[in-house]
Amino acid sequence: MDSAKPAPEQKAMEGGEQEALDEMEKKVYKYSRGKAAYLGTLRDKKLKGQLAAREKLYGHSAKAAVQTEKWLLPTEGGYLEPDDEDLEKTYRYQQSSLVGEVDLSSSRKPFDMILPLLGPYTLGYTGNGRYMVVGGRKGHVAMMDMLNLELIKEFQVRETVRDVAFLHNEQLYAVAQKKYPYIYNRHGTEIHCLKEHGKSLKLQFLEKHFLLSSINSFGQLHYQDISTGEMVANYRTGLGRTDVMRVNPYNAVIGLGHAGGKVTMWKPTSVKPLVTMLCHSGPVTAIAFDRGGHLMATAGVDRKVKIWDLRKYEVINSYAARAQSLDFSQKGLLACSNGSQVEIFRDTGGQDYKIYMKHRMVKGYQIGKVLFRPYEDILGIGHSMGLSAILVPGSGEPNFDTFVDNPIETSKQRREKEVQSLLNKLQPETIMLNPNMIATVRPSRKKEKKTKKEIEEEMEDAVETAKSIEFKKKTKGRSKASKRAKKREEEVLKAKRPFLEQHKENDGRPDKKQRVGDEIELPKALQRFAKSRQ
């Protein structure tokens, strides 16, 4: 029997293989180090062989990176792409049309939860994006499993709730209430009352350091270690009351926005701010940090949203817009809320952010907080009439590392991760602007200036040494006593000169003449020439 395959089927297989090869070449080009060098003109055979071997090694490493991506990064992220960029704009797409185009599981994630009597609402997500905690201004607190869309626990604290934040996992979360922050477990049981924090306005949790930070109504910044209960730091900012506070995920530095238009950055081991930036001409209303830690977005009452480069502390871009809340997604999208409208900006290259999507709530809804859900293309919105979630394609990281964040982790995996994170807990001293400085050799410090007494003692020793020098006896009248005394005086002056220069540097203004003033008593013959102080 003839085992040859039919011609159409064989052509289809060849076409599929060709497409796979083309796709492979594109990915290899992504990981390659540019165009290979032309070695035909080289005459040195040894150098030519070395460079050829290196180029071959570069090609193998690019192919290995493509294979690794194929197995470890199976999912690719995508954005909204218009058919015609000149005529069609992505920000004109409505949520109703997006829900109809995505898959079934993604279409179930957007929602609108109307709770008009207990708002406005604030919200927070766990690091893996599975759980959400919400807090209503009038005392409503609830925790939900967003993977299964189930309500785990809700209760009423019967007093004002200003902010909510998860701790290291979904088992514990903090709620900033009327007088003090409280810590609850997932069953709604009160675990702790943190009275030392006072009337907290905002809460932030530093995951790798197990520190809960808060800013209260008196402008005091608190850091408390939740693993030991120790109050690590308590500082007065000195810039008045503020409720604008975010943590930089790159270096765990806390950023505060103040009423004078300044943004300050703090760490728990420094009494004074690490950085003070004048960002706006009016009060700062919102602040957000990029995942990489090098970009910061600020918004102010002066109707400007600014993007800052924290490596140079310079403005990259400034946009005429108002924003009550800002947030960066894992893939670099920036969400801004203004009144009842949400605008999402996307980096088109070179930190040039353009409008990507728009979403308008029902007229009259005032948005309080926007927050991207980790590892999902979802933006959570807390507003005056409840909670909402909208689809934002391309906002979440499509591939997750189970050793870092696992949205589908079991209880055993959660316990193991909790133990490992406690064992690997970083000390507060490791928080700094440039964390790459850790485990490097500290440069030698400049020598401190010597005191006047030390300089005089060293000068006396040098003078004694110079006086004790014995000169060689010379003939023909060159060893006279007067000449030897003159030489000794020259040696003494030479020994004194460096110490006199040090003395002048310590005093400051060494060459300027001292002014004649009333405090200096002049001879009677010169007193009539002194200027009288009026």
Automatic annotation (TrEMBL):
Signal peptide stretch: none
Segments annotated as WD repeats: 277-318
Chain residue ranges for the region called Disordered: 1-20, 442-534
UniProt biased composition (Basic and acidic residues): 487-522
Domain of life per record: Eukaryota
Name of the featured protein: BING4 C-terminal domain-containing protein
Compartment list: Nucleus, Nucleolus
Bias kind Basic residues: ranges: 443-452, 473-486
BING4 C-terminal domain sequence ranges: 355-435
Tagged with keyword rRNA processing: yes
